[in-house]
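The instructor's notes for this session suggest beginning with a concrete chain rather than abstract definitions. Hand out the sequence below and ask the class to guess, before any prediction is shown, which regions might be ordered.
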Amino acid sequence: MVELFAKLGKSTGSGMLFLGDVLDLRHRLPLLWAKVMRCELEEWQALRVARMTHRLSQDQAGEVDRAVAWFAGTQPPGKLFDAVEATILRIDGDRARAEYEERRRQVGVWKSQTDDNGLKGVFGRLEPLAAERLYARVQELADCLSEGTADERRAEAFGLLGDAAAITRLRAKRRQPELFDDELAEAVAALTPDDEPELTIEESDVHPALRDRPIQVDVESAIFEAAVQRLVEKLDPRLLVPTSTVVVHISAEDLSQGEGVCRVPEVGPTLKSVVGEWLGHDRVVVRPVIDLNDAPPPVDDYEIPDRHRDQAMLRCPGSVFPWSTATRNLDLDHTDPYRRNGPPGQTRVEKLIPLSRTEHRAVTHGGWRRRKPDPTTMIFRSPHGHVFLTNRTGTHDLGAGPVAHALWAAS
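After discussion, reveal the predicted structure:
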C-alpha cells in the first residue's frame, strides 16, 4: 500500500484519504464511477463529489448519484458541485441545519497588526447575506466619493463606517442634493437679519438662582443648530433607509415543504428556513414572481429596458457560453446583431442571451458566432470551426467534423 502511494506521488496520509475517496466513488456512487471509467467525467470532480457525500448513508449517497450523474461531465464543475450540495440539503436537511448552526458560531471580526507601510487590515467572517449587504453599503458610499481609484474609494468608504454623521451627510447629498444647494447659507441668513435690534433681558425674567451669574449665550452655535434643524425638517428620511434586494429561486414543491431548498445567486443552495432568518430582521417587501410566459413587447431601441433585462436574466440566470460559470455582472447580447436602420422590434427577450464581458467581446470582435435555434438551446462556433451546443443539460462539444458543421448550417 505504501509503495502504491509512493508511485502516485502521495504521502501516506494523503494516500489513505485518496484511497477512501476512490472506494466511496466505486461502491457508493456507481453511476459517476462508470462515467469516470468511460472518460466522460474527470476523476477529480468525481472524487470531490465522493468527499461531499462522505457523511451520507449508502442509500442517501445513491440518491445523490442518481440526481447528478446524468449531467455530470457536461456542466462546469461549479454547477455540478452546487447540484450535489442542493441534493444533500434536500435529503439530509437535519444534518445541514446542524452544520449551519455550527457555522454561525464561527463568525467574527478581527484586525491585524500594523504592517511596514503603516496600514492595518480588518477581516470578518459573516453570514453570506450579511457580507453582501456590507459590501453593497461600502460600494454605495464609494460611489459618493470622487477622488482616488476604485479600491481607494472603497477603502475610504469602509473607514467611514465608523462615522455615522459623515455617512448620513454623504448619502443625503447624493440622494437629495437639493438640500445642499446654498440651503444652509440661506437658512443661517434668515436667522441673522442685519437690522435685528440687540435683544435686552429684564432682570425680572431671569430665575433668581441665575441673577448673580454672568449670562453667556453662544449665538453662533444656536444659529447653526437652528439652521440644521430647518434642513432636517426638509430631509426625506425614506431616502436614507438602506435597501437590500435578495433574489431567491425556489420550486413550487420546495416552497410547500416544511424545509425546502432554494438557490440564492452568489450564495448557492440554501435551506429555506435559513433564508427566512436572513430576512427576519429587515422590512421585507415581497415582489410577485414574474410570469416568464408573459414577455414584455419588443422595443425598437438598442438599449435594453429594465423589464426586458429582468425577464432575460430570470429565464437564464447564468452565462450560456460554452463551459462558462459566470453568474454576475453579465451583459445581454443580441443573438441577431442589432441594425440601426433595421426592422422594428429588434430588442426582444427571446433574442437576448447573458454573457460575461469577455465572452461578449469574443462574440462581437473575436470571431465567435452564435445561433439560437430554440428558446433553451444555443449553438456556438469558434474561430477555428469547433461547434459547441449549450442547453439546460450543459455544454456539448460537437467537434469540427462534417456533422457538427451540418448542424451549425441547419440552425
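Then share the key points. The first helix runs from residue 2 to 7. The mean pLDDT is 80.
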